């Protein structure tokens, strides 16, 4: 290693990477040398040189031979061109090679030289439709990496930067796994694994690299998780000693019976609240299973015991809705929740801030506005975080810091993607888990129908039937306005006009992110009161929106949504005893797209849907927003690699019991890593 040099250095330290490139790399989440080395190809092209006789028509392959004619470029039109040359791939076989619109390649093609070319084989013409010239150095590799790119950053530039990083920083790549584990599981060093992830010579090298990277990713995740748990166990918690009878009375005032699963969850949570360790619990339940009510009851227990309580939610619409339903249910028995969101005016905000500070306000529900420094509680005993994956580690910590004593506060997190117990143990550590595994009595499965645009009439018919039965409808689209890039997609505004014409006797309203927040609230309220019957919206209605009278959700261009998102959207209906329908309008063009739509029509269980989704998506696509709420791994797949996760969990557990197995240097490297990486837990 070189003194002062580290793989956490900024990319700007690499030769040839100026400020513009640095910014472009940042757009795909790459800031440091380490980030770049972990920017793995999302797929590889098989560039093994093949024999002509073994190749099928239209197959993508690499051929290698001697260039036996000067390259010729013909231009046609303003920007179009064709480059041709001949390649002798064996003593008796000469083929032609064509590249379209890359005239500059002419300078790299020299008569008499040996050249490998990747492309599509056209057997009739004995022609290779060239896609890429393969450099000498790459031609002993079987695979060429393909990376996610961004505007201004092309494949060759990414490859060049990665090669540069290996050249200049290879020595600085630390070994993160303890030596004895590498031995035990026969894993290659990290530096080598990273290199082989990008430039594997063959399938075996690629496999070795993946094994190491997956194990390491799970190991580091477990290391951080279990250390946090260990620390947590030593804390004493704020004990919420509530009067059980009083809570029972509250439960009796609810107009329906709790499900068995809800009762069990309430009991588990309340047991933790009374204990002298701080609660760290995950409440999981599929869409519409009644998590919110369980959360309300935990909040009430806290208030009965004399503590304040806060519920943090990801959107203002949701915050407002929760306040409304809390007060509707409990205000008559003297329990009132206050709202705190950023759109409130200064006076309103001040009143809440003062109320929380003096302890006059005991129950608050709000968005991230709640975690700002100005908010100080008198005695916050329980914090609840809904849709926990929408908040970062820092935001969750900021909420915890608002407790009487920051480590003692009780925390309940909620997720709408319930996972099996065994997986929960590995993913949530020793955090306890309560699962609501049944829907309230009388709920009917939602009928999901896949339709193509041309069959829209059947959808309109069903909408008409439901409207005349007095029910309401969501109509969801992926875009707000027409965009040049997606001309075919009808947008919210156009569709709402169309629906107004079609259903003149009903009120049609629109909801999207470009309305100001007050307008959004008005629209939601009007839909909530059934003054609006059809709500045409973007995914703003995705989480938590609860209008029991809505029985139809139509999702247009459904193939453009993630499955987790579609499942959340579908969960906006089927929230009462009424029969409900979900129409997915789509025309998937790929096999994968078709399979995804099938999954939606066949399954109603959120966990199965995420699992199936990951199976068909494969690696690479997990980038972007985390929609399922399951912890996201850079490379490993919690379903396919579950056994590795389990091994990593056990190894970390052992290691924490016998830390003497680690050298001082190993401990130092691990703690530096943990410090630098805020892996989501
Ligand atoms: N035991 C019950 N019996 C009947 N209705 C219930 C019961 N529990 C909750 N509900 C109602 O069911 C609807 C859905 O409940 P809730 O909003 O708590 O679900 P959720 O799990 O938070 O859903 P989501 O993940 O979609 O936000 C609400 O209208 C709620 O009042």
UniProtKB/TrEMBL annotation:
Origin species: Fundicoccus ignavus
Broad class of enzyme this protein falls into: isomerase
Reaction(s) catalysed by this chain's protein: Couples ATP hydrolysis with the unwinding of duplex DNA by translocating in the 3'-5' direction; ATP + H2O = ADP + phosphate + H(+)
Protein name in UniProt: ATP-dependent DNA helicase RecG
Residue span(s) of domain Helicase ATP-binding: 272-436
Family: Belongs to the helicase family. RecG subfamily.
SUPFAM superfamilies in the cross-refs: Nucleic acid-binding proteins, P-loop containing nucleoside triphosphate hydrolases
GO molecular function: 3'-5' DNA helicase activity; ATP binding; DNA binding; hydrolase activity
EC number: 5.6.2.4
Keywords, sorted A to Z: ATP-binding, DNA damage, DNA recombination, DNA repair, DNA-binding, Helicase, Hydrolase, Isomerase, Nucleotide-binding
GO biological process, one term: DNA recombination
UniProt entry tagged with the keyword Cytoplasm: no
Annotated Helicase C-terminal domain residues: 469-615
Listed PANTHER family: ATP-DEPENDENT DNA HELICASE HOMOLOG RECG, CHLOROPLASTIC
């Amino acid at each position: 290693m070189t003194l002062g040099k580290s793989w956490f250095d900024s990319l700007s330290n690499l030769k040839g990477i100026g400020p513009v490139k640095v910014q472009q790399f940042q757009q795909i989440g790459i800031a440091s040398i380490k980030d770049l080395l972990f920017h793995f190809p999302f797929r590889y092209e098989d560039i093994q040189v093949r024999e002509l006789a073994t190749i099928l028509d239209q197959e993508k392959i690499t051929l290698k031979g001697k260039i036996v004619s000067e390259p010729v470029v013909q231009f046609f039109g303003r920007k179009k061109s064709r480059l041709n040359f001949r390649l002798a791939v064996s003593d008796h076989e000469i083929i032609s090679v064509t590249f379209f619109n890359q005239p500059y390649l002419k300078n790299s093609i020299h008569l008499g030289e040996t050249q490998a070319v990747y492309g599509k084989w056209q057997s009739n013409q004995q022609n290779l439709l060239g896609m890429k010239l393969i450099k000498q150095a790459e031609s002993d590799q079987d695979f060429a990496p393909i990376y996610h790119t961004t505007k201004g950053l092309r494949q060759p530039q990414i490859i060049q930067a990665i090669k540069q990083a290996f050249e200049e920083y290879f020595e600085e790549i630390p070994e993160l796994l303890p030596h004895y584990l590498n031995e035990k599981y026969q894993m290659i060093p990290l530096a080598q694994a990273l290199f082989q992830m990008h430039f594997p010579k063959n399938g075996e090298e690629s496999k070795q690299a993946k094994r190491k990277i997956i194990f390491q990713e799970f190991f580091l995740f477990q290391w951080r998780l279990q250390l946090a748990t260990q620390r947590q166990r030593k804390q004493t918690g704020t004990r919420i000693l509530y009067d059980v009878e009083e809570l029972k009375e509250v439960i009796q005032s609810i107009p329906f019976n709790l499900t068995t699963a809800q009762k069990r969850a309430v009991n588990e949570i309340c047991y933790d609240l009374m204990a002298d360790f701080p609660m760290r619990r995950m409440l999981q339940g599929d869409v519409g299973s009644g998590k919110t009510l369980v959360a309300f009851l935990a909040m009430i227990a806290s208030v009965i015991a004399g503590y304040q309580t806060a519920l943090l939610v990801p959107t203002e619409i949701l915050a407002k809705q929760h306040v409304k339903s809390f007060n509707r249910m409990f205000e008559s028995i003297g329990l009132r929740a206050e709202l705190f969101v950023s759109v409130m005016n200064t006076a309103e905000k001040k009143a809440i801030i003062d109320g929380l500070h003096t302890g006059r306000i005991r129950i608050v529900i709000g968005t991230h506005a709640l975690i700002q420094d100005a908010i100080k509680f008198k005695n916050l005993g329980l914090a609840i975080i809904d849709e926990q994956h929408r908040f970062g580690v820092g935001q969750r910590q900021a909420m915890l810091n608002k407790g009487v004593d920051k480590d003692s506060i009780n925390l309940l997190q909620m997720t709408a993607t319930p996972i099996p117990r065994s997986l929960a143990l590995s993913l949530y550590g020793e955090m306890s888990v309560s699962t609501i595994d049944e829907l309230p009595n009388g709920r009917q499965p939602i009928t999901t129908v896949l339709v193509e645009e041309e069959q829209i009439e059947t959808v309109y018919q069903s909408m008409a039937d439901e409207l005349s039965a007095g029910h309401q409808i969501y109509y969801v689209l992926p875009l707000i306005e027409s965009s040049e890039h997606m001309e075919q997609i009808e947008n919210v505004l156009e569709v709402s006009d169309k629906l107004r014409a079609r259903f003149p006797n009903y009120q049609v309203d629109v909801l999207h992110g470009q309305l100001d927040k007050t307008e959004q609230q008005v629209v939601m309220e009007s839909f909530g009161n059934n003054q609006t019957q059809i709500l045409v919206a973007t995914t703003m209605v995705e989480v938590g929106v609860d209008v029991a009278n809505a029985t139809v959700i139509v999702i247009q261009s459904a193939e453009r949504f993630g499955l987790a998102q579609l499942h959340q959207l579908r969960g906006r209906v089927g929230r009462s005893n009424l029969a409900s329908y979900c129409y997915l309008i789509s025309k998937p063009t790929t096999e994968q797209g078709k399979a995804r739509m099938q999954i939606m029509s066949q399954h109603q269980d959120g966990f199965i849907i995420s699992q199936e989704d990951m199976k068909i998506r494969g690696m690479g696509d997990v980038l972007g927003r985390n929609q399922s709420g399951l912890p996201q791994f850079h490379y490993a797949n919690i379903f396919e690699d579950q056994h590795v996760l389990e091994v990593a969990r056990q190894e970390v557990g052992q290691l924490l019991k016998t830390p003497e197995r680690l050298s001082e240097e190993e401990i130092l490297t691990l703690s530096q890593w943990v410090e630098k990486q805020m892996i989501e837990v």
